[in-house]
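Dear colleague,

As promised, here are the two records you asked about, laid out in our usual form so they can be pasted straight into your sheet.

NAME FIELD: protein one
SEQUENCE, THEN STRUCTURE:
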Amino acid sequence: MIWPKAVKDRIKTGGDREIIRSYPYRSACPSTVWGDLVANTTEDLFFAGYTNYFLWLDQPAFLATLRRKLDGGCRVRFLLGDPNGEVTRSREAIEDVALSVSTRIRITLEHLGKLGTHEGLETRFSAPDDSVNHVSLSVFRFDREALVTPHLARLVGHDSPLLHLRKHEDGGMFDRFTEHAEELWSRGVQADRTPAAS
């Protein structure tokens, strides 16, 4: 009664309040958004992309940034696909690109290996039975915000859409996606980050 319909249509309600922004392509999300989210995270950085390879290209001095986060007491986790797994091989055939999925995973492992052993740094491969679910959805958590990419069919990650979420209430969009990633993490297998893994 008080608000005109045009205004009501623009006001987010319920789960919509957790959607900060949507992008038709992950690559359309400015690298500064990623950088700001990482910079503002103090407790839990969780990178649950299948390869996480693009982070090393998009974020300047990303290794040094992660080291500072770890030294400041932030938990840093990487959930990756198994570079030798069946789903990885299948995905490589689907994508059919020069820089293969397994190579991108191994590059991430090589970078993480440079961080050495640190109590706050954890790396796992998704379990074989979970890999098909992992490869189809990337979840990146920054404390109470997240960037989520549902992967479309044969498209590589940067060509798939992205949602920027901020937790507003229990059981909302943020929780739905991050709880999915936590479930995959709970069944994951510890990954070797030594140079031999690459």
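NAME FIELD: protein two
SEQUENCE, THEN STRUCTURE:
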Amino acid sequence: MSEDAPAEKAEPVETWSDDGSADHRFRVVPAAYVILRRQRRDGSPEVLLQLREGTGFMDGHWAAGAAGHVEAGESVVEAAVREALEELGITIDATDLRPLTVMHRGERHGPALEQRVDVFFEASRWTGEPRRAEAAKSADLRWFPLDALPDPVVPHELRVLEALLAADMPRLMVHGF
């Protein structure tokens, strides 16, 4: 570090541990999804999608521009803001996230890791130019007209995008049961 550079202040690390108080309860994995949306010159909507690669889940499918698990000690809103920065290199103010729907997703009697609660947000304001900030997990990043999505799209995300196009977004969706 040069003498001119200000010293970086270490952020306090929040830790979380399982105290065992919920061992008898069913657990789900929470995740946050951010769908970036903008208007085309003709006024029709388009969304930013990334082509998954190297993740081990739905590689070769198009997906929301940013998505990921909620980490210990953060809210789903904080997770959405963090994922947008990590995956797209953009900053979204939490007040610019519009909740779209919540999806309970999984398989009846399936593995615990695949029991999910996904919270989908839409954003039409952000700072920075979206880019593939995690290139090892994404083969491409492109804007698509909402009425002309690529194929294939991750199935549960496609349901949300189709509801967005139809302007008929349910508050709650269930997928896979």
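A couple of things worth noting about protein two: Helices lie at 76-88, 155-166. Residues 76-88 form the longest helix (13 residues).

Best,
R.
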